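Q: What residues go here?
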C-alpha cells in the first residue's frame, strides 16, 4: 500500500507543488482547500500523471472546529505526511483593516494548524513514524508594520514548529518549518483583494514556487527543523538577528509602504 499525505491549501501555489512532489514519490493524497473548482482541477492533473489515489476535502480552514472535521474524515487512514500549507495575507494599518479577515487569518494560521497537527501527530507518534511540514514565512523573523497580524501569526508557526521539532525527537516523527520569502503564487493577489489595494510589486528576488516547494520537501524528508530557501533569505535572517529590533521594524515599514505604491 502507498503511504498517505495530507496537504492543505492544495488547489494552487506551493500546495499544488507539494502535492506533485508527493505524488512522484507514490504517496496517496488527501488534498484540502476551499476552492472546489481549482482543487478538482489539481486532482485531475495529478491523477493524469501519477498512478496514485487522490481524495479531496472541500472545506474552509478558517472555521471553528474544522480540524476535528478533517480528522474525522481521515482517522481511519494511516497518515505519513502532513503539510500545513494554507495561508493568506492582509495589507494595511491595523486600525483600518478588516477584523473579520484578520480573525479568520488567526484561526487558519494558528488554531487550525495547531489543532490539526495535534490530532495527526498523536497517531504518528503511536506508529513511530511520520513527517510534518508547516509553512511559515520570512515574515516570522521580525515584526511587520502594515501586515502586523500576518507577521505575528507566521512568527507563531515558526516558534511552535521549532519547539515541537525538539519535543518529538526520538519518536520517529520529524517536524519541519519552511520560511520562504516572496514567492510567485497567488498570495499577493489575495492580500491585495483582502485590503482593497493594488497588487504588490514583484522584485527580482521573488522565488519560483516549484523551487521553493522542492527545497521545503527535501528539508522535510531529511528531518530538518527549519528551512529557509535562498542565499539572500538566509542572509536576511542572519541580518535581522544582529540589527536592533527597533531599526528592523522601521525598515520593514518603509519596505511595505514602497511595495504598496
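A:
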Amino acid at each position: 500500500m502507498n503511504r498517505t499525505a495530507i496537504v492543505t491549501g492544495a488547489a494552487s501555489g506551493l500546495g499544488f507543488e507539494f502535492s506533485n512532489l508527493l505524488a512522484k514519490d507514490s504517496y496517496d493524497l488527501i488534498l484540502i482547500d476551499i476552492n472546489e473548482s481549482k482543487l478538482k482541477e489539481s486532482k485531475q492533473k495529478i491523477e493524469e500523471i501519477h498512478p496514485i489515489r487522490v481524495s479531496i476535502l472541500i472545506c474552509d480552514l478558517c472555521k471553528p472546529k474544522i480540524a476535528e472535521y478533517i480528522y474525522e474524515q481521515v482517522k481511519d487512514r494511516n497518515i505519513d505526511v502532513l503539510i500545513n500549507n494554507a495561508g493568506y495575507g492582509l495589507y494595511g494599518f491595523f486600525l483600518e483593516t478588516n477584523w473579520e479577515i484578520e480573525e479568520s487569518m488567526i484561526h487558519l494560521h494558528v488554531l487550525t494548524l495547531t489543532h490539526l497537527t495535534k490530532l495527526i501527530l498523536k497517531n504518528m507518534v503511536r506508529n513511530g513514524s511520520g513527517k510534518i511540514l508547516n509553512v511559515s514565512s520570512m515574515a516570522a523573523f521580525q515584526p511587520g508594520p502594515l501586515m502586523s497580524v500576518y507577521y505575528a501569526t507566521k512568527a507563531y508557526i515558526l516558534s511552535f514548529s521549532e519547539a515541537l521539532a525538539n519535543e518529538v525527537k526520538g519518536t520517529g516523527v520529524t517536524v519541519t518549518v519552511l520560511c520562504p520569502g516572496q514567492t510567485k503564487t497567488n498570495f499577493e493577489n489575495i492580500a491585495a483583494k483582502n485590503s482593497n489595494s493594488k497588487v504588490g510589486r514583484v522584485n527580482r528576488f521573488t522565488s519560483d514556487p516549484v523551487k521553493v516547494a522542492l527545497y521545503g520537501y527535501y528539508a522535510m524528508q531529511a528531518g530538518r527543523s527549519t528551512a529557509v530557501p535562498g542565499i539572500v533569505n538566509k542572509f536576511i535572517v542572519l541580518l535581522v538577528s544582529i540589527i536592533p529590533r527597533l531599526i528592523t521594524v522601521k525598515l520593514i515599514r518603509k519596505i511595505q509602504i514602497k511595495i504598496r505604491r
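A: Context that may help when evaluating the design: The longest helix spans residues 99-127. The chain is about 50% helix and 15% strand.
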